[in-house]
Amino acid sequence: MKPPRRVDDENVLPAPDPAQVQVIRTYGPGRFVISEREWREPVLVTPVGSVGWGVTRAEQVAVANLGFLREGEAPAELLVLGCGARAVFIPPPLRAELKAFGLALEVVDTGSACRIYNVLVSEGRRVAAALIPL
Fold this sequence. Notes:
- It is built from 2 helices and 10 strands.
- By secondary structure, the protein is an alpha+beta fold.
- The strands form 2 sheets. A 5-stranded antiparallel sheet has the order 1-2-3-4-5, covered by helices on one side. A 5-stranded mixed sheet has the order 7-6-10-8-9, with helices on both faces.
- The two termini are 23 Å apart.
- Residues 1-7 have low confidence and may be disordered.
- Pfam families: DUF498 (PF04430).
């Protein structure tokens, strides 16, 4: 996989075929392009769909605002949390709650979350991304 290239202060990411799954095509300050749709808000992304997410800080993450990720025939098993410019500490009780909910958690900056999600979705993994814009 080629590393992302810089284009007008945005990162263009290599991705699987957007006709088959939801992929993160670009990200930049305050925005994402997921498959063919632009988002200017936090967003939850799965291989089959994306929805706006009412979380603006990683400290607001809770099982109650992640229900979308466990819906459908093949619910996500791994959540890649993109915290913005840098990763933040997620307390062990929240990690345990997410694990009991069926989600393993990877916490990284938003750019890394976009790249990790695309790689894992291209491998057919049951992954989701919870993205807070840069």
